[in-house]
């Protein structure tokens, strides 16, 4: 389904929830990157995508967040980067079925920091271009750059993937530092990020992950004040507890959804979940959004 950013400003659309945490709950081994499930457990990936769509998601991201060359090399994964991404896109398309769903290719940060010269912009260009082209070959409708913390890196990625694919791009950072959690870990302020990404041609701007649904409102307010582009907001299901060395998210679908009206009132246009959220969180969120739409229609 083609992404029309201009049409998103006048409504609210529901996106999917988390992938890694949900795939692990469904049987994907925890000692390997979740992205490898595209090749080893494709039926689980398709089933999760289908569950999100059946729950009401109309934006479905691919299971490719860390499927870039640098991340896979760090985890000693030898599978083809092109295959991980192309197949990830194809599996998301299968999960979407015939529903009117925007399939979005997920691209996460490299894990290297430009500011301290851990990597060059030229090397980043190759890394992001490879992943973006493979996702485009798999048939995605758009790309999302998500969970970035360095403004320079996401601006580099935005330029690269736009040039490599010509697809619409959602640019989303994680804000989890500063007095109101309106700064990235690298110290970039939400309003400055929004303004820079707007100028650089991002089609949608947003935030995801971070401190969780309970803490994201100030960042959403700051983003909306600095841009008129549609806002993408996908917080975690709260902050995790560490149990047996594993992050466990305990915020219930009811608790997660109770926070969402304030984010919608602040200007969020596309809402979903990140780590710890699953199909039931999205089902309740979709019901909330539809309820607000019905109320708005009755008032007209």
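Sequence proposed for the structure above (300 residues):
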């Amino acid at each position: 389904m083609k992404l029309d950013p201009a049409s998103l400003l006048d409504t609210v659309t529901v996106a999917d929830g988390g992938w890694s945490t949900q795939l692990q709950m469904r049987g994907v081994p925890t000692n390997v990157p979740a992205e490898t499930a595209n090749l080893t457990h494709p039926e689980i990936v398709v089933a999760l995508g289908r569950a999100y769509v059946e729950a009401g998601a109309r934006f479905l991201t691919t299971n490719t967040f860390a499927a870039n060359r640098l991340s896979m090399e760090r985890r000693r994964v030898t599978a083809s980067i092109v295959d991980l991404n192309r197949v990830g896109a194809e599996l998301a398309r299968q999960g979407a079925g015939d529903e009117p769903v925007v399939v979005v290719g997920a691209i996460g940060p490299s894990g290297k920091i430009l500011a301290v010269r851990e990597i060059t912009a030229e090397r980043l260009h190759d890394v992001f271009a490879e992943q973006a082209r493979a996702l485009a070959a798999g048939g995605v409708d758009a790309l999302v750059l998500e969970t970035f913390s360095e403004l320079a890196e996401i601006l580099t990625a935005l330029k690269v993937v736009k040039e490599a694919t010509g697809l619409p791009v959602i640019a989303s950072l994680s804000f989890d530092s500063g007095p109101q959690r309106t700064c990235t870990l690298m110290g970039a302020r939400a309003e400055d990020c929004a303004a820079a990404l707007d100028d650089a041609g991002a089609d949608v701007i947003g935030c995801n992950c971070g401190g969780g649904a309970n803490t994201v409102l100030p960042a959403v307010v700051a983003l909306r004040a600095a841009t008129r582009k549609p806002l993408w907001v996908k917080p975690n299901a709260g902050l995790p507890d560490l149990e047996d060395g594993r992050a466990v998210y305990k915020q219930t679908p009811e608790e997660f959804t109770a926070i969402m009206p304030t984010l919608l009132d602040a200007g969020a246009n596309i809402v979903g979940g990140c780590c710890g959220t699953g199909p039931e969180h999205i089902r309740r969120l979709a019901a909330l959004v539809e309820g607000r739409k019905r109320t708005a229609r009755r008032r007209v």
